[in-house]
Amino acid sequence: MPISILPPQPAQSRLPPDPDSDHDDEKVTLNEDGDFVRMASSQKRPKAISIVTPGEIVTSDPQWMRGHGTYLLQSKDSTTDGSGSDAEMEDGADTAAVGGSGGGSIVATVAGTVQKVNKLLSVKPLRARYAPEIGDLVVGRIMEVQSKRWKVDINSTLTAHLLLSSINLPGGILRKRTSTDELQIRSFFSEGDLLVAEVQGLFQDGAASLHTRSLKYGKLRNGYFLKVKAGGIVRGKSHIITLEAANGAGEVDVILGVNGYVWVSKKVTLQAPPGGESITRLEEEASEAIYSNVNEDIAPATRREIARIGNCVRAMVSWNVRVDEEVLNAVYLSALELEEMGIDGEGSIGSGVEYLEGEVGRIVVLAGMDRVSSANLRAGGMVE
Amino acid sequence: MAPLQTSQQTGTPLSPAELSYLHTSLTLTPPIRPDSRTPTQFRPLFAESDILPSTNGSARMIWGDGGECIVGVKAEVEKNSISSGGPRDWIETNVEVSGQRDDDAFLGMTVAESLLVPGSGVLERLVLGERFHWKIFVDILLLTPPLSHPATLLTLTTYLALRNTFLPKLVSEAAEDPVFDDDWGNGLPLYPVDRIPPPITLLVVNVGENIFFDPTREELAVGDVVLAVSICEKKVVGVRTLEGGSGGVKREAVKRVIKESCEVAEEVFSSLNGVGEGD
Amino acid sequence: MTDRRRINGPAEGTTPPVFLTSSTHKPVIKRSPTTLRKIFLKTSLTPPATGSAFLELPTPSNPSTPTLKLTASVYGPRPLPSSTTFSPDARLTAELKFSPFSTPGHRRGYIRDGVERDLSAQLSIALEKSVDVGKYPKSAIDVFVSVLDCEGGLGDAGDGNDGGVEVGLMGVVAGAISCASAAIADAGIECFDLVAGGVAGLIRERGGVVEEDHVGEGMEAGEDISGARHGEKKNRGIALVLDPSPTDGYIILAAAAVGYMAARDELTLVWTKGSMGREGDGTDEVERLVDGAIAAATSVRLVINEAVKERLLLGLKEIGLIKEKAGGNDGDIVME
Questions:
Q1: FRET pair for C296, CA 20 to 30 Å: which of A236, B100, C148, C178?
Q2: Domain boundary residue among A94, A125, A156?
């Protein structure tokens, strides 16, 4: 069946079982029902999530500091009486008691959930462009080459900068940059090139400054780029995942950029030079080829699995499942299983079943989630 | 959703490594598409018809990558005049791409050109007696341009809308001013089931020996040639070359593209005709 | 009192002079459906441009009938304006413009309309694939084609040929491709191959007899051809006509224009109009049409080759490298 045309579905049925899984420390835990993620989140947050809309007063309590997504409204009516602001604060039930004590009130500027970290109060929008933070691993694409820097598209409000001085120059990791390097800046990165980098710092205007001064970072080759929505990849422990691909495809690296850009590629193992094993030697060797544009030989089986893993990531993001190593592995195994079933069972979906959009994607993601939860169940049983 | 202004659309090229990876994958036998689709497989799409009550026919379609298109068909009674261009002006097609000032000349041209193909019999159904005729306005609104080329999305939606277009029944004589039946239930379809249906356009990209339908933007970037093939009931009603593609293409490849398009179009037609039957 | 400041017209009206035209005799189509028209093509006629070419189709027997005349000029490779982003390849832009007086019917405005934008896009697609853009990084190659005269059949209001598809635009595109490709070669821009444009159409054969015996007998565009067409409905014989002209008076069921690189045997542009069946008597109409258009383009290619060569020989002669007269009878390259 080359084409499937479906009637549009109401939004609810497309929504995922678990819309919030953005806490870094959130462990996948399991409850009595084995319904792991939803319970995990509800255990973490017993209160109903407070959602605010722009213009809504979050709190007037002066003890809170305002964070992202809010602004400070200098309350004029603090001298008159607090009743007006009280009436507006019907949603902020716990803070409503605090009235005009001289300070202003914190008002939301975006629609989203209120987050409180110590005394910092911020509103996290449900959907927004990526806002870079120091230490984020991002995948970016060179948009413009300037004399000493590159401008990199990282799906953010402003293009990021990559200075010539913050990349590994060939011929030794700690070499100082020279004017020769400036002249051949396009030999490192040219327009359209993809790279993985870390956010090194932020400029005053919020633009990110990147660096690739590590062997993990640099130009991307041997794989396929895909883009998911900016909030689809949440910050986690590890953003470079290596999966053992099926069908003799070898190992596949998945680089999950926090900005929603994902790179799936064949794992490239650095060949240790025959003589010395020292790490500096290795780095020198690697740096020769680090800016090459030529792919290695990639077997068709590997290409197929790269595509499948890419589909898994896409399906997980579209069904709002957090992408991490464990779940991605499970979803990937489910996808493989589905293909086997599809070919053995009904011939109608035999072809193209690797394509994971729409309903097939949901089935695979759910199956993957089940797999994770049952694995947790077993692990939990062993602990007990 | 406003059109995305990311590297996907601003024309930043793909990296050489990416292009070579895609090209090699797509030239393999069997080819491996970056999203594991089979060469003839389309991304899933959602469609509904008869969504706008103030039109004679309408349809909406959502493409797999987020593209969304709405088509409204309106009919007005117009006096035959000698000064105008005759029957070819009786159907007017407008394409509006939201968020884009300069509309792609190609889009409107393809739809109009294939709609007005001689022998389709539509123009005869627009005649209202001796002095009047229907004037059909096909307004295509591309709410979100898809990341790949919008031609297919646009024509599939137009097909659905035209298929669901009904015109009030004429009750007056040929020489009189036209008077219509008040009952919408008696309306006549613009494209009756047993007649030649409206055409659709399929986008096909050729990479090496392989042919791909519903190409994504990346696939378009590595293609040898990108063709838009318009098909109307087993007949090819128009072929156009689109921008993109890296070089010339052998004539055998063009012929094969056209031949395969006809086969795939059969299935697309049957799927399209199934839209709305479920309700 | 009479107005002395102005030169007044005569008090009594005059009748404008009527010139005798030779339009009394009918345009007789002498060529058979598979014969192409002769092409006049000459390069380097616009000195300021890097390269240029002029293409004209022969004037038919009736001098007042329009014919296709167009010029192409190529500027570049020249540096891209600094505002544009870096491009590792040359950017080729093509612009096709109809002169306001070029169309036989209505006057055309100066403002670019949809038709011109569409043709420009098709022209640039057809040419881009032939030019070795990788050789000219960061540069722009601009091609301008202006149509000075065309034969009509542009799908404009008032053309009124409701029996078939219009081939006027296809003829313009094919001519523009050939002319622009010659201009690119004249500009000394490296290209993989020259592109030639060719048009072919399918017409219904009349009564099983080969069309060429009958075309002469008064099938004018103004005649009521729809009746003739309905009469022939049952007859499924379909004939191929190469390089059809809107003034020929054929009822064209389907037409194709191609941009064809003969040396590489590759197509750069395919554009068809009209419905082409796939059943029929085994021969696929699409394939037949495309092959026909390619055949037409192959012949046109010979003219381009000659025109480019001729200019080169002329240049060599001027600097004294070649003494003897170069081939070709003074630019009028004749193709049979």
A1: C148
A2: A125
Q: Max CA-CA distance within chain A?
A: 82
Is there a single domain that holds both residue A205 and residue A238? yes
Closest chain C residue by Cα to residue A145: C86
Q: Do B227 and C264 touch (CB under 8 A)?
A: no
Q: How far apart are CA B71 and CA B142, in angstroms?
A: 8
Q: In A, which residues are within 8 Å of B276 by CB distance? A: 7
Instruction: Report the C-alpha gap between B170 and B174 in whole angstroms.
Output: 9
Of A300, C121, C306, B148, which is closest to residue A308 (Cα–Cα)? A300
- Partner C contacted by A31 (CB < 8 A): no
Q: Is the pLDDT of residue C208 over 50?
A: no
Check CB contact of C286 with chain B, cutoff 8 Å: yes
Please tell me the distance from the alpha carbon of residue A379 to that of residue A326, in angstroms, as a whole number: 13
pLDDT tens-place string over residues B179-235:
888 887 888 888 887 778 888 888 888 888 888 988 888 888 888 888 888 888 778
Name the closest residue on chain C to residue A143, using Cα atoms: C85
Taking an 8 Å cut-off on Cβ atoms, the answer to whether B84 and C265 are in contact is: no
Going by the DSSP 8-state scheme, the letter that residue C191 receives in this structure is: B
- Number of domains chain C is built from: 1
Question: What are the E-state strand segments in chain A?
Answer: 5-6, 51-52, 57-59, 65-66, 70-73, 105-108, 112-117, 120-125, 137-145, 149-153, 160-163, 194-202, 208-211, 218-219, 223-227, 240-244, 251-256, 261-266
Smallest CA–CA distance from C85 into chain A, residue: A144
Distances (CA, A) of A43 to A36, A47, A213, A378: 10, 9, 40, 21
Q: Is B274 on the interface with A (CB under 8 A)?
A: yes
Q: Are residues A143 and A208 in the same domain?
A: yes
Last residue of a domain, one of A64, A92, A125: A125
Q: In sequence order, which residues have a C-beta less than 8 Å from that of residue C222 and are 6 or more positions away?
A: none
Q: What is the pLDDT of residue A13?
A: 46
Q: Is the omega angle on the peptide bond into residue B30 within 30 degrees of 0, that is, cis?
A: yes
d(CA B225, CA B204): 8
Separation CA A213–CA C19 (nearest Å)? 85
Number of domains in chain A: 2
Tell me the CATH number at C78.
Answer: 3.30.230.70
> How high is the ipTM of this complex?
0.82
Q: Are C290 and C258 in contact (CB under 8 A)?
A: yes
pLDDT at A155: 87
pLDDT at C318: 81
Centroid of chain to Cα C137: 31
Antiparallel, parallel or unpaired: β B68-79 and B132-144? antiparallel
Residue A270 falls inside a structural domain: yes
From the options 3.30.230.70, 1.10.418.70, 3.40.50.2300, 3.60.15.10, give the CATH code of B16-273.
3.30.230.70
Percent of chain C with pLDDT over 70: 72
Q: Which pLDDT does position B73 carry in this prediction? A: 92
Question: Can you give the residue range of the structural domain that contains A76?
Answer: 51-125
Q: Neighbouring chains of C at 3+ CB pairs within 8 Å? A: A, B
Residue C30 lies in a domain: no
